[in-house]
Design goal:
Length: about 650
């Protein structure tokens, strides 16, 4: 219903009509003889964005360019000339810390995962535009010379806009350099063909200033690597919500990322001197000796055999701390969540539980650790903190010399142990860390977990659990190891490949700038060894940036949060791998596909559909009959009442 005053709402369906109304009002102020050249989708977007007021204390991912200011946008439009603009217009990650969150909390240092930024190009020169050569990185101070910058960008800017992705690395030469500010400028030129009636097109050079912290490489104990590669990316599958008690939603929309629903944990770690990096390539694409803790939080994807072998070695031999936070997994519960979707006319089955417990169990099997398929609920005391578990899993196995904490119901949900050279901690629910589960958030406990796994210190509550001299084995629930349906594991797997979001030393060869001249190459072509760029070496000793001009074979994909560039394969082989996975997913979602139900899914779909239609028809018939009976009885009562009134009148007369 319509209410007075203002209220807060979000989403495209709310923002779009407001933006359309603002654009219409702006367009009405332009004289008719100027509208042909001045009124374009690009000019409207530029006027609205340039006139917006930036809100304090809010991230760019919350407010975009800011709050709309119609008067300022009108003033921009009155003086408008066709031009190219980029958003954000500058990358100052030092002075605009709140606005550039979370990137401002991720300083640059040698050996780290790259800083990835996506810029939007609005081309007011014409509906079509092109890069007139690859972008270039020009350092403006000594620290800026210690950066290597990769680019990915639109092959064609159409209609009216495109993108420029930056993948920024610190060279190996920066490992022991004193802290400072790395500064430089990204420049590129956009050209557009002539308008109808013009003989020559237009072009414009664009410069984007960049400033960020450059630090010596921190102690590995304070470096946390958060695995995002094995979390399913929206939208190919039906991934159910982690909290089964929440009845308003059944889909997990949030991506399980430290910059989205786990951002209180990210902020708490960075506020306490930790450096959080995101693993967005396969588990074989990082050096375990660089990190103190690997975080596997609410993982839904599969681990390939090569990844399992490497991670086990990283933990037992290289001392990589491991923090695993699982979620519920139960086949019977998953079957209850299946529903008929009216849009696709098909039954949607969960492809996984709250997390992929079978995959985690295969990974942890060599460490003597396993989760069960029990769905747990209750609370747990750790020191002064009360941990709420809404719908989690439970621990099935732990090696000897472990410590276990149980819910009041007796379910073991927290375990700490030492495996080889590393500390391992496993927990069975994300309620206390995930902002979307509406629980009592305890991000400081995540810090306790990391301090233990990294070998920095033991929390005060450590020692209050049950000591296990022998191997711990729980009899609560089964230990799922394999998927009962064929093909599910393939659908949850991703390529064993290092993309451009991995450190330079793990990337395949690509194009680079040498001696101040840029060389643009398509992904997959052989070029210089990127390890030389990482070290700041090579012919001429002045390798500044890497330029990758995307073709059709390796289109760049923008992922959730708007901040993840470089997820495209860097070779044609990787592209074909991705295509095969997409084909599998598409086939799996076809109504007639013999997937999890062994060929009976199609008949089940139509059976449920017709049962639903028959039920609706019978319900309507019953309602009509009840209405008819009610009206008939009402009419009889009215007739009877009328007769009684006439009888009383006759008696009175």
């Amino acid at each position: 219903r319509i209410e007075r005053g203002c209220r807060e709402m979000s989403g495209t369906s709310v923002a779009s009509p407001v933006a359309c109304g603002l654009g219409t009002l702006l367009a009405s102020t332009v004289p008719e003889h100027e509208r042909y050249k001045k009124l374009t989708p690009a000019s409207m977007k530029q006027a609205l964005m340039e006139g917006a007021d930036k809100l304090p204390y809010e991230s760019i991912y919350v407010q975009g360019p800011g709050k709309a200011n119609l008067l300022k946008s009108y003033q921009v439009l009155q003086k408008y000339e066709p031009r190219v603009t980029i958003f954000p217009p500058e990358l100052n990650l030092v002075d605009d810390r709140d606005y550039m969150w979370p990137h401002s909390r991720t300083p640059l240092y040698a050996g780290a995962m790259p800083l990835m930024l996506n810029l939007t190009i609005v081309n007011g020169l014409g509906v079509t535009g092109y890069f007139d050569g690859p972008p270039t990185w020009t350092p403006t101070n000594a620290q800026g010379e210690l950066l290597a910058v990769q680019f990915e960008y639109s092959e064609v800017l159409w209609p009216w806009n495109g993108y420029l992705a930056l993948i920024i690395h610190a060279k190996e030469a920066a490992r022991f350099e004193p802290p400072g500010l790395a500064e430089g400028v990204i420049t590129f030129t956009i050209r557009s063909p002539p308008f109808p009636g013009e003989k020559e097109g237009l072009s414009q050079e664009v410069a984007v200033p960049f400033k960020h912290q450059l630090l010596p490489t921190p102690d590995k104990k304070y470096r946390v690597l958060w695995d995002d590669y094995h979390n399913i990316q929206y939208p190919p599958h039906f991934v159910p919500i982690d909290d089964l008690t929440y009845k308003m939603e059944i889909l997990d929309w949030n991506g399980d990322h430290p910059h989205t629903n786990f951002h209180p944990v990210f902020n708490w770690l960075t506020d306490n001197g930790y450096f959080v990096e995101i693993l967005s390539s396969a588990a074989t694409c990082f050096d375990a000796s660089e990190y103190g803790t690997l975080v596997l939080c609410d993982t839904e994807g599969e681990f390939l055999d090569e990844e399992i072998s490497k991670l086990r070695t990283d933990v037992t031999d290289k001392g990589l701390g491991l923090l695993v936070i699982g979620e519920w997994y139960n086949r019977a519960q998953m079957n209850k969540l299946a529903f008929f979707d009216d849009n696709t006319r098909s039954i949607w089955h969960p492809i996984v539980g709250g997390s992929n417990v079978p995959a985690l169990n295969r990974l942890l099997d060599g460490l003597g650790i396993a989760f069960s398929d029990e769905v747990t609920k209750g609370d747990l005391r750790l020191g002064r903190d009360k941990l709420e578990v809404k719908t989690g899993t439970s621990i099935a196995k732990l090696p000897p010399q472990s410590e276990v904490w149980r819910l009041r119901t007796g379910a073991p949900v927290l375990g700490a142990t030492k495996v080889g050279k590393a500390n391992v901690l496993v927990y069975c629910d994300t309620t206390i860390f995930d902002i979307n589960l509406k629980g009592n958030l305890l991000p400081h406990l995540f810090l306790d977990f990391v301090q233990y796994t990294a070998g920095i210190s033991k929390p005060g509550w450590m020692g209050s659990g049950e000591k296990q001299e022998e191997a711990f084995v729980s009899k609560r629930g089964k230990v799922p190891m394999e998927w009962p349906e064929p093909g599910i594991s393939d659908l949850l797997s991703r390529p064993l490949q290092c993309f451009k979001n991995a450190p330079l030393t793990f990337q395949p060869a690509g194009g680079f700038l040498e001696g101040g001249q840029s060389v643009s190459t398509r992904a997959g072509k052989e070029s210089a060894d990127l390890s030389e760029i990482s070290k700041g070496e090579g012919r001429g000793g002045d390798i500044e940036a890497i330029n990758v001009h995307n073709g059709k074979e390796d289109g760049w994909r923008q992922s959730e949060g708007g901040g993840r560039a470089g997820n495209s394969p860097s070779s044609s082989q990787g592209s074909h791998l991705d295509d095969r996975f997409v084909q599998k997913i598409t086939a799996r979602l076809q109504p007639g596909h013999a997937g999890a139900n062994g060929g009976t899914e199609s008949s089940g779909i139509f059976k449920m559909y017709f049962q639903r239609q028959v039920a609706v028809f019978l319900f309507v018939i019953v309602c009509v009959l009840l209405l008819f009976i009610w009206k008939k009885r009402t009419r009889r009562n009215k007739v009877k009442a009328t007769k009684n009134r006439y009888a009383r009148l006759r008696q009175i007369v």
